Amino acid sequence: MDYLDLPQRTSGERTYGLTSIIDLGTSIGELTHILEDYSSFIDIAKIGIGSAYVTPILQKKIDLYKQFGIKPYCGGTLFEKCYYQNKLPQYLRSLTDLGIEWVEVSNGTIDIPLHERLKLISEIKQDFHVIAEVGSKDSGDNLTVFEWVNEMKQLLDAGSEYVITEGRDSGTSGIYEDNGQIKSNLIHQLVEEVDYMKIIFEAPTPKQQMYFINLLGANVNVGNVKISEVLVLETQRCGLRSETFFVEEQGCKLPL
């Protein structure tokens, strides 16, 4: 069908308007069926938490994502585990062997000082594309707005191609209160200070996704999307859900 006037979506190998899904154990058979139908809606696939380390036939899963033009990478928890155990060289070599070209640098579980993360990014970017995450998985560990903005800017300047706002797969930390409420004042400040096309907002629930679509438009970057809900998200982006009925390509940038 092609007769409605809808927000113009980016397509092909997108640089913004990204949908990043979280894979927490999708079987190869199920994944194959999903990608056959919906791969055009997915840009990035995070093998969530540290599950890549124990995923059976991981190579087959990585190859399948790449076959459909989707960029796979491992969750930041695995990066942090390797950093904590001084195993980052082995970790990076294993990514190369798997054909993974993207690395997440995060500090959601352990405190890796900003200067250390910047140093790591400057080194890792020589061989990989880097995504850096800002924020903690501990809902009681709150950065100030200045710290959020400062970290994002420095991480991008160091060579990160995107910065991710921590939200967990539950949407209860980082840019969210522990009850899932969005920290709207923080979000508005971030998009005023940082190029939001370089921010991937973790938004695991439809309610959270709709907030960002209404605020920033159909082509906002959204992460931690459940793989079973990519069609719902694309429907929301196109203004085909009541809550996003009046969405525009660029969004309204007004308080919601």
TrEMBL record:
<dbReference type="InterPro" id="IPR013785">
    <property type="entry name" value="Aldolase_TIM"/>
</dbReference>
<keyword id="KW-0456">Lyase</keyword>
<protein>
    <submittedName>
        <fullName>Phosphosulfolactate synthase</fullName>
        <ecNumber>4.4.1.19</ecNumber>
    </submittedName>
</protein>
<dbReference type="InterPro" id="IPR036112">
    <property type="entry name" value="ComA_synth_sf"/>
</dbReference>
<dbReference type="GO" id="GO:0043817">
    <property type="term" value="F:phosphosulfolactate synthase activity"/>
</dbReference>
<dbReference type="Pfam" id="PF02679">
    <property type="entry name" value="ComA"/>
</dbReference>
<dbReference type="InterPro" id="IPR003830">
    <property type="entry name" value="ComA_synth"/>
</dbReference>
<comment type="similarity">
    <text>Belongs to the phosphosulfolactate synthase family.</text>
</comment>
